[in-house]
Design a protein that fits this description.
Bound molecules: adenosine monophosphate
CATH superfamily of the largest domain: ATP-grasp fold, B domain
Strand content: 25-35%
Structural class: alpha+beta
Number of strands: 17
Radius of gyration: 20 Å
Distance between the termini: 52 Å
Shape: globular
Number of helices: 12
Helix content: 25-40%
CATH topology of the largest domain: D-amino Acid Aminotransferase, Chain A, domain 1
Order of helices and strands: EHEEHEHHHEHEEHEEEEEHEEHHEHEEH
Amino acid sequence: MKQILPGATIGIFGSGQLGRMFAIEARKMGYRVHTFSPDKDTPTGQVANIETTADYLDSASIREFAKSVDVITFEFENVPVEAIEIASKYADVHPKAEILYTTQNRLREKTFLRRNAFPHADFFHIKTLEDLNTATEKIGFPCVLKTAGFGYDGKGQTKIHSPAEIEKAFQNLKGQEGILEAFIDFQKEISVVCARDQKGNFSHYGVIENKHKDHILDTSFAPSPISERIKSEAIEIARSIAEIFDYVGTLCVEFFLTKNEKVIVNEIAPRPHNSGHLTFDACVTSQFEQQLRAVCGLNLGSTEMYKPAAMANLLGDLWRDGEPDWPKALQHPNLKLHIYGKTEARPRRKMGHLTALADSPEVALKTVVQARRNLSQEKL
Ligand code: AMP
């Protein structure tokens, strides 16, 4: 196993906030970072040593990028698998291209869960209106129609409440393949952020509890006050998913916890995850440093939390009436502000987040929510 040491260059496909926080950790430890994406002046590029702006299908640029780095990872799961495959010829890529292939498409991801007997929502592959009619009869209402590929943060999702809504929902697919899922009447959403190194060692950050608003993550806090049984079930599922994939890097598994206390996998993210952002301030080793250590062939770090923590996302909507009131939010001494350096604040766009540590997750959550309210000066 080749160890990549400080001074070496880490290549990263994608240039968003996950890459930015990864780059911050990498540079703290003396690595150089080279990001590759179609965009300029990006959240990752502002922190990286080198920012390559080229299309993900530009094979000559990918080759040049891959030859110039010591190891490659990605921060965005919609990077075309072809890009990873080309890069893999010149440098090691972690996690592997086939993991990206499985998880970037909901149909392949759910099929993986079914094949390996992980608990998941019932689903059907939808190509035609006829398929959708038959599938809704089997699944019942309400149900959720999603595009099979390239969906995140609720993009490409339609909840169907009755037969009258079927045709309109089908049109929302806009000719793309879809997946119809049973709607899960959950009591809460939880996630396990974990990591696996090149020797197969596994570590995790326990169970994080998440609240979504309009399908976008709104707040997370940890540890989630759930039973030991649910906690170990969720962690065990995450561990076996990582094992089956022979995973190297940071991984997140998102779950629904049903009203009758069943754990159901919703999604697998083959990268650090928004629900793990609180590890950046609250843990000995953040999810980003863990990714770095894993891809560099180093030992994983301790996931110990200094204190319970919570995170609140800051979406572009906060900028609706001008610049948020930063000093007011930062009056709280335990609050950490993260801004991603995106040049334009669009509604629903993740612009930054707040983290707070406290003696209990409930107090930490109240602190970030209150601070966020102060930011918007009650405008929202
Ligand atoms: P996704 O992009 O599939 O993770 O969905 C984003 C959010 O939509 C989830 O975190 C849930 O809050 C909600 N959601 C998605 N699928 C379902 C489902 N089958 N049942 C209930 N809620 C869902």
